[in-house]
Design brief:
Order of helices and strands of chain B: HHHHEEEEEHEH
Radius of gyration of chain B: 39 Å
Strand content of chain A: under 5%
Number of strands of chain A: 0
Order of helices and strands of chain A: HHHHHHHHHHH
Number of helices of chain A: 11
Shape of chain B: elongated
CATH class of the largest domain in chain A: Mainly Alpha
Number of helices of chain B: 6
Number of domains of chain A: 2
Radius of gyration of chain A: 21 Å
Helix content of chain B: 55-70%
Structural class of chain B: alpha+beta
Strand content of chain B: 5-15%
Number of strands of chain B: 6
CATH superfamily of the largest domain in chain A: RNA polymerase sigma factor, region 2, helix turn helix motif
Structural class of chain A: mainly alpha
Largest interface: A-B, 62 and 48 residues
Oligomer: heterodimer
Distance between the termini of chain A: 80 Å
CATH topology of the largest domain in chain A: Rna Polymerase Sigma Factor, Chain: A
Distance between the termini of chain B: 99 Å
Helix content of chain A: 40-55%
Largest sheet of chain A: none
Chain lengths: 264, 181
């Protein structure tokens, strides 16, 4: 009896490129907030392996795909980036806070990644590498447009000793259905945009893309301690910005008007 | 006496990340059990993170995927054209490069080398040479020599000389004319 080939070895050979290309793009597109290069539980990769083996096989398949692209099958690049394209967009959108610029820069990021694919060092994940390019591209766009980094509406001068939360309203149960309302989504985007860029970067990588502290530190080129510090400030500032506005029903009445300070 | 609210506010982010040791964590847990305000702060911070993780917050606009793929298709096509052009250029330049390399590398003045096959002052052939596997004429050639007949085998010139091979007259003539020019 012939030995069945290992599925991960044959995933590229089994499906011709035109089938992999999936022109409707309906599958394999990971949401912006998933850990990069790793499938969510329940994700179905096109390899018949149990989930624990899929995690490593995902990277194996990705690396095999990179080898194919580098050997001349450049049309497969779209398959390589499909699981990451939303993440790239989310990264640049969160840093630029402008949809048109974000789309432009997201495209530039992936085009640049195509041109530099041979430089990709495989000790990091491909998704993290893409995010690094995306952040650099967004920073460059900000510099080109002489965009002054937005200052936080809260006071940056608050250090760890002097910080006092703005409000203690309990809003633990804001339902996700609140996000169906465009003004709620815009409130979140605007709050994020109001943070200084270094806070935004730490928050986006760690809390939205769920990179680890050390991965975030690696992408940003700063120490893990600096990541934690920025993350703490970003979380507190966002919480302060949003707390007065989002009630338990997701009703948006937020403004920076009056803030209850129960300790005063 | 437990820890203060300020202490909690300082450590609350590490608490969310599970980045505190068990003693610190227990201290915060004890505080949360007694302080409604700090518990509300913790819950609302977690809620912020949960909300931002939702796909819909930073979702790309309609048509993003199609426009992106269109751009990438154009780029991969133009990259392929560039690659093809580069390959053709390289292929055209290769014989020229080999010729230049051969002229510089294989033919050098006699005083640089001591080979018994050539007299003093004669140009010598160094490096790899070609011999014919189909003819037993015991002559070695510079690669590409038109006098080389049959299937070539490439060996070091020293090995050829050791085995009784002598340089091809045509190759030596070419080498001499190169040297004099």
């Amino acid at each position: 009896m012939a030995k069945a080939p290992h599925p991960s070895e044959n995933v590229l050979a089994e499906e011709p490129a035109d089938q992999i290309s999936d022109p409707d793009g309906a599958r394999d597109e990971a949401p912006a907030g998933v850990p990069l290069s790793e499938p969510n539980p329940g994700d179905t990769l096109r390899i018949g392996l149990p989930l624990d083996r899929q995690q490593s096989s995902f990277q194996e398949v990705e690396r095999a795909l990179i080898d194919h692209i580098l050997s001349g099958h450049r049309e497969l690049f779209m398959d390589l980036v499909r699981p990451h394209q939303r993440t790239v967009y989310a990264t640049v959108f969160s840093l630029l806070a402008n949809k048109e610029d974000a789309e432009d820069v997201a495209q530039d990021t992936l085009v640049k990644a195509l041109g530099r694919l041979h430089q990709f060092r495989r000790e990091s994940s491909f998704g993290t590498w893409l995010i690094q390019i995306a952040i650099n591209e967004a920073r460059m766009r900000n510099r080109k447009q002489w965009r002054v980094p937005m200052m936080s509406l809260t006071h940056d001068k608050h250090d760890e000793e002097t910080y006092v939360p703005k409000d203690f309203e309990d809003w633990r149960d804001i339902p996700s259905t609140a996000l169906e309302r465009v003004e709620v989504r815009e409130a979140l985007v605007n709050a994020l945009a109001s943070l200084a860029q270094h806070y935004r970067e730490a928050f986006v990588l760690r809390d939205i893309h769920e990179l680890s502290i050390s991965q975030t530190a690696g992408v940003l080129g700063i120490s893990p301690g600096a990541v934690k510090s920025r993350l703490r400030r970003a979380r507190l500032m966002l919480r302060d910005l949003l707390a007065p506005g989002l009630g338990e029903d997701g009703r948006l009445g937020w403004s920076l008007k009056e803030v209850r300070r129960p300790w005063e | 006496m437990g820890i203060s609210c300020q202490h909690v506010w300082r450590d609350i982010s590490d608490y969310i990340d599970g980045d505190l040791d068990h003693i610190q964590r227990a201290a915060l847990d004890q505080h949360f059990a007694q302080c409604r305000h700090c518990t509300a702060l913790l819950d609302s911070m977690r809620n912020v993170i949960t909300l931002y993780r939702d796909d819909r917050v930073l979702a790309p606009p309609a048509g993003f995927r199609e426009r992106l793929h269109q751009r990438l298709r154009e780029e991969t096509k133009s990259s392929r054209r560039s690659f093809l052009a580069w390959t053709l250029t390289a292929a055209a330049a290769l014989p020229l490069g080999i010729a230049l390399f051969s002229a510089r590398k294989l033919i050098v003045p006699a005083h640089d080398h001591q080979s018994p096959a050539n007299g003093p002052g004669q140009p010598q052939i160094v490096g790899t040479v070609a011999i014919s596997l189909d003819h037993d004429d015991k002559v070695y050639h510079v690669a590409g020599c038109p006098r080389l007949q049959g299937k070539p085998q490439f060996i070091a010139v020293e090995e050829a000389i050791r085995n009784g091979y002598t340089p091809c007259v045509y190759c030596i003539g070419k080498a001499r004319s190169k040297k004099n020019s």
